[in-house]
Each structure stands twice: as structure tokens, then as C-alpha cells.
Amino acid sequence: MVVASKLFRKIKNTIIILKLLIENQSRFRKFLLAFGISCSAAYFLYTFCLKLARSVPKSQPAKKSKTNPTLNKQFFHELKYLCRIMFPHVFSKQSFLLFIHTLTLICRTFLSIYVAKLEGLLVRNIVQKNFLMFAKKLIQWLLIAVPATTCNSLIRYLESKLDLELKSQLVKRSHQFYFDKRVYYKIALKQSDECQVDQNLTEDIDKLTNLFVHLYSSLTKPLLDIIMITATLIGLAKSKNVNYMVPSLMALVVIGLTGMLIRKISPKFGKMAADVAKQKGYLRFLYGRIQTNSEEIAFYSGEKTESNLINKNYLLLKKKLELVHNNKFWYIIIEQFLLKYVWSAAGLSMISMPLLLSEKYSPKNQVQVEDEAAEISQRTEEFTMAKNLLSSGADAVERVMTSYKELTELTGFTRRVYEMFKLFETESRNSEKPIQISSNQKPKDIVSKDNDQIKPGLVYESDTVSSIIVDNINVMTPNGDVIVPSLSVKIDHGMNLLITGPNGCGKSSLFRILSGLWPLKAGVIQRPKLKDMFYVPQRPYLAIGTLRDQIIYPDRVEDMFLKRMNDADLMNIMEIVNLTSVVTREGGLDAVSDWKDVLSGGEKQRLGLSRIFYHKPKFAFLDECTSAISIDVEGKIYHTAINDYKITLLTIAHRYTLWQYHNYILQFDGIGNWKFEELNNNLDNRLNLKQEKDKLEKMLLTVASSKDRLQELCNILGESSIALE
């Protein structure tokens, strides 16, 4: 009670002091005093809001050392990089649309000023009860509405058109990077949460261009409105011989204080938007992963584990969204109070000053104003015009101030799209380009000029080369794990090679290095061009399209005609791989279906093998691609490929039935050692050894169960056995 009474007395004394200060003062001094008190109140409000902002929890700190996206030099550098992509040159279509859009915004600003003046004249005629002039101005107002509404619609249309063009430009450039030098494969190898390319290429680019175009309109037109409306209001004040410096100073102080306050209390919406987009992308990746591996998950009954993983990541997304909503809640309260009510009070004070403080009109206006009624009507006209202009100006400044939140969101999407392009550029730049060699150059000529040493990590290719030469290479993963430290083999055309060894010994890794998927860290490879080598994996990729598209992949129908092949040739190929029944069952080569689900495992493998008969390469890399095919069909395919199509086969297989189709063997032992030898000379011996190995394996697998049974019999009979001692 004591504290409350003291506070009440202080408030009472303050009111008495203010009353004494205000009494017996001119209107101008009263206004200045009120202005000073308002500035003091705004300062105390500023400090209070800062304390409130510090008490509200901000976004979670980043775990990494990377700087958060915000309005700084780095953001403008990233935006400049993306603008060079979105606007390739000054005379591009995108630049032209931006120019037309800017002209439309300027026209809309002049129309707004004209409409404000016209509304003032309408109110003046209403006060004067001048029906004819009112009707004339009303007709003008209706006529000006036609270009005004057209201009508004044109602004929205140009926004959408520019947004689409900028988006298309970014997508076009990103696709050029993404599909160049197999960048998509290198990014897929990273398997990191940071590499959410599908999210970057769809939602992030879409939101970036949408925010960019919207912010351009939200900043360009308001700035034009502010300049033109300010000039018009100053001209109005000068015509009444009123000092416009005080209202202008008042506007600058109010705008400056509110702007500083909004910037200080604004949460890091840019980082929040980037975090939410990243979490959404990862959640989408998890859903896609379940769709891709649905059969395996179903076999293992892994629904509970996958559901827990999805729910856990959704809860993380929910927390991030709640953080955004909580920060927006209190931020919008303060923003609306400052921009709507504080600015409205300041605007009313600015409007009233020319009317309240002007005692007389200029001589020119006194000639026109003959009585008090005319003076009132003219004041009404000027008040209405000034109110409309200042209201439009306040709206313009408000749009500029509220754009800060969208600008911070733009920083987040700019960072994600910029990092995506930089990742594409880095992977593309790090790709090794094979060195082209002449037709008369031999493998022994591929040496360094310094001391005749073999060049490390180099790949040579030529159209005329009919062999694959691997000279002292390291079979190494992209992460740097060495599988085979030194490998040297030469595979001439016609040397069908069988590659064997335990899992993880480097068989498939060798194929990836020969095909250029993995980088060559050391040694030299000489090979034909990639069009003369074809890879068939264990699980063949089935594209979206017709059955014909599956056979000729990655060619298109136009490419097939250029190779002078037709559907009859494709049917012959399907006969080789025993898939003519599939063509009949599915309705012909033009049938379209989800081939991944329609075909069985063996049919998929045979369809994958049909591609080597279409492309007719010099070398075919077969990576356990017949494991689901019967032995008789497998033999037919191998016999046709070797004898009829003269394709040299490099096969990874565990079936000893395939040994008869190869004349050389490359064996890996799994610890970095290898052995390359001819297979024809000891094929029968190897087959006998293989059969003996399988027999011994079966015998040894039954040893443990036989010992258990013998122990059980000894216990029943009460005897012992020397086999158990």
C-alpha cells in the first residue's frame, strides 16, 4: 500500500507539472512539447521492448561453426552470385521483364497520387454542394480506375511471370551442373543430411524466387511511393506557408526509432527458415527411403523401427515450427503496435500541423477564397488529400519495415541454394577428364617425360583402343580406403575374364574405377571410350517409359533410328534373352508400366542383359547379373554374346557353370592380394577342385550336429566314444 501511494503521488505531481507547462503557451510550443514527450515515451517503450525481446528464447544455436544466414556481406555475395544466374545479361528475357515490371510500379505510384488528389476534390465538391463538379470528378475517378486496375493486375502478372522465368533459369543451370560429369552420382555417394538435393531443386528454388520477386515489388514501389508522396506533401506545406521541417523531423524520428526497434527485436527468421526447410527435406528423404526399400522392410517387419524414426524426425520438425510460431507471435504484437498505432498517431499529428498552425492563406489563395464556407471546403479538400497521401506513404513505409522479416527468410533460402550450386561446381571441378590418345600410341608410350616414370592417377581413352590396360593402380574407395594396393592387368579384346573373390575384395570397385565412377588415385588406365564399355549390375535400372525404352536405355527412340535399328531387331534381342513372352503378355513394345514391380527378378536381369545386344559394346562388365537366371538361359546369353556379337565379357560371378565361357581369371583374396592367370589350361582341374571343395563344405557343416547326436547316444547307452575324446 505504501509503494502504491508513493507511485500515485508521483503520477499526480507529474500531471500538475505538465499542466503548468502547457498553460499559457502558443499552439506551436504546445505541439513541440507534446512532440518531446512523445519522443521520451517512445524511448522508454524502446528500452522496454528490448528487455522483452531478450527475455524471449531465440532459435537454438547452430552445432556447426558455419555462420548463420543473416543480412551481412556474405548474404549479398551469395545473392549476387545467384543474380548472375537469374539474369544472364542485360538484354536477357529476365532483365526485360524486370524493366517492364519496374515501369509498371512507377506508373502505379503516379496513379496513386492522382487518385488521392481526385478524392480530395470530390470531398471538396461534396462540402460545397456543387453537384455538377462532383459528377464531373466522379466520372474522372471512374475513368482513372480502368488504367489503375489494369496496372494492378499487370503488376501481379509480371510478378508471376518473372518468378517463373527466374525459377526456370536457376533450374536450368542446376540441371546443367547436376547431370554434368556424373555429379549426381558423386553427391549420392556422400549420403549426408547436408546433401538434400531434391529439396534444394524443388522447394528451396521455388521459395527463393518467390521471395525475391515479392520483395522487389514490396521494396521498389514503396520506396517510389515514399519519394513521390513526400515531395507532394512538402509542396502542399509550402503552398500554405507552413514550416514543413517539424513534421518531416517528426516522421524521421518515428520511422528511425521504430526501424531500429524492429531490427533489434527481430528473431533470426532466416536461420529458422533454413532449419525448417532442411528438416522437411530430411523427412521427405526418410519417406522416399521407405518407399524404395518397402519390400525389405516388410520382410523384416521393421514397421516399428521405421515408424519411430519418422516420428522422431517429425517431432524435431514440430519443435522447429513451434519455435517459429512462438517468435512470430510476440514479434507481430510489437510490430503491429508500432507500425499501426504509433505511426497513425504520428501521421494524424503531421496532417493536422499545416491546418492547425497556418493562420492565413497565401495571397493567391485569399483571392480564390471569398467566404468562410469556401475556406472550410478547401481545408477539407487539403486534409482529405493529405490524409490519403500520408496513409499511402505510411503503408509504403510499413511494407518496407515488414519486409525485413521476409528479407531474413530470403537469406536462409539464398544460403541453401548457393551452397547447392557451390557443391555442384566443386564436384564438377574435381572430376578427372580422360586424356585422349592417338591411334598409333601404345601403352608403353604412356609415360612421364621425367625419368620415364608412369604418370600417377591418369586415364587414357581412344576410339581405336581394343584393350583395357591397368598399370599399377590402387583400387581405392572415394573415402580413401585402399582395397587393392597395386593391380596390373591387360585385357585384350576377346579375353573373356572371370573375376572372383570374397565380398568386399574390390571386384565391383574395379568396375567403378574402369567406368570412371570412382576417381583413380594412383596408376594409369588405358581403355576404350565409355560408349564401347557397358555395365550390367545385379539389379538393373528400369526407366520410366515403354518396354522399348527399357531395351534401348539410355538411348531414345530417335537414337535407335539413327543406329538403323527397328522393332524387329529388338524382338530378335528379346528372343535371345527369352523375353518374347513378356512382350506378348504386356501388349507389345509400346506398353507402359511400372516395370520395377511388374517384372520378376529373373526377367529384370534378362532385360538388363538385352541392352548389351542392342548397344554392342567392345567390353561388357557383368556384375553378378545372372544370379536369378536359369543355367540354360544363362548359357545361351553368354554363348551368343561371345560368339555372335564378339563382345568381350568381364564377369563377376560365383557360379562355376560360367567358367567355361571365360579363358582368363582374376582372383582377389580379400586382403589386397590378387592373381591373374589363364583359365583354359586348367579348367577341368579347377572344376574338380570346386566340386571337391563343395563336398567338403557340406561334410564339415554336418560335423557339429553329428557330434551332438553321438554324445546323445553315448548318454543313452552309458558308453563312451573315442571320437568325442
Automatic annotation (TrEMBL):
The chain crosses the membrane at residues 31-53, 96-118, 138-158, 222-238, 244-262. Pfam families: ABC_membrane_2, ABC_tran. GO terms for molecular function: ABC-type transporter activity; ATP binding; ATP hydrolysis activity; long-chain fatty acid transmembrane transporter activity. SUPFAM superfamilies: ABC transporter transmembrane region, P-loop containing nucleoside triphosphate hydrolases. It is a multi-pass membrane protein. InterPro entries: AAA+_ATPase, ABC1_TM_dom, ABC1_TM_sf, ABC_transporter-like_ATP-bd, ABC_transporter-like_CS, ABC_transporter_sub-D, P-loop_NTPase. Residues 468-695 form the ABC transporter domain. One of its GO terms (cellular component) is peroxisomal membrane. It is found in: Peroxisome membrane. One of its GO terms (biological process) is long-chain fatty acid import into peroxisome. Belongs to the ABC transporter superfamily. ABCD family. Peroxisomal fatty acyl CoA transporter (TC 3.A.1.203) subfamily. PANTHER family: ATP-BINDING CASSETTE SUB-FAMILY D MEMBER 1 (PTHR11384:SF67), ATP-BINDING CASSETTE, SUB-FAMILY D MEMBER (PTHR11384). This is ATP-binding cassette transporter subfamily D member 2. It comes from Brachionus plicatilis.
